[in-house]
Design goal:
It is a single chain. By secondary structure, the chain is an alpha+beta fold. It is extended and about 90 Å long. Helix content is about 35%, strand content about 30%. The mean pLDDT is about 90. It folds into 3 domains: about 1-45, no CATH class; about 45-175, Electron Transport, Fmn-binding Protein, Chain A (Pnp Oxidase, Chain A, Roll); about 190-220. A 7-stranded antiparallel β-sheet has the order 4-3-7-8-9-6-5. Strands 1-2 form a two-stranded antiparallel sheet. The chain has helices at about 20-30, 35-40, 50-60, 105-115, 145-150, 185-190, 190-220; strands at about 10, 10-15, 65-70, 75-80, 90, 95-100, 115-125, 130-140, 160-175.
Length: about 220
């Protein structure tokens, strides 16, 4: 999946959220600035709204990584997981999820009280695709109706609050260096035909063995 139709605001290019002057200087020094400058002006630039393609990609995910930063500038990356589709699209600028009870360290919760900027990393390992999302986030602890709306019925974890993420920018980049990995359900689905064929072959072998045994007992067609 590629980002299409790059957007530019009064503040500059959407990618300026991370392509700071220092980053652009590094790109210029190492020879990649021209290519990224052309990307910023062309149809492959970064987006600042959730497109139908991004929404479909998000709906298939059962995990992502959330980066936050505390007031002292110390970064933290947290794995977030749940049933497929637990990260939801509320509108073209807002993502949300139910915050399930975990190890109760509350690092992301504390960080967001000091700095609301976040980055999300969403991986599709089987298809070697990745999406990066930058935005601002806040926890909502006094809206049980919202938490219930975001929770997944039947999921064993208890939702304690909601996490809302305002999308400022996103980008889908190349599959280079992504090693394909598969979940247990994906492996089961991919090997279903093989397992069915094994059952069929085992049944055929059992039938042949039974027939040979009957022939040996009745007419001794198999010489010892």
């Amino acid at each position: 999946m590629d980002a299409r139709g790059g957007r530019k605001s009064d503040r500059g290019h959407v990618s300026d959220i991370v392509f700071t002057p220092a980053v652009k200087a590094a790109q210029a020094r190492l020879g990649s600035r021209q290519a990224y400058a052309e990307m910023e002006e062309g149809p492959g630039g970064w987006q600042d709204q959730v497109t139908p393609e991004l929404a479909a990609f998000i709906a298939e995910r059962d995990s992502f990584y959330l980066a936050s930063v505390n007031g002292a500038g110390q970064p933290y990356i947290q794995h977030r997981g749940g049933p497929v589709g637990f990260l939801k699209v509320l509108d073209d600028k807002t993502l949300a999820l139910a915050d399930f009870r975990g190890n109760r360290q509350y690092i992301s919760l504390g960080n967001l009280t000091e700095n609301d900027k976040v980055a999300l990393f969403l991986m599709d390992y089987p298809n070697r695709r990745r999406v990066k999302i930058w935005g601002r986030a806040r926890f909502v602890e006094d809206d049980p109706a919202l938490v219930e709306r975001l929770a997944t019925p039947g999921y064993r974890a208890k939702p304690e609050r909601a996490l809302l993420i305002h999308v400022d920018a996103w980008d889908a980049n190349c599959p280079q260096h992504i090693t394909p990995r598969f979940t247990e359900p994906q492996i089961v689905q991919a090997t279903d035909g093989l397992r069915q064929r094994i059952v069929e072959l085992e049944s055929e072998v059992a039938a042949l063995r039974s027939r040979l045994s009957e022939d040996a007992d009745g007419e001794s067609v198999i010489e010892s």
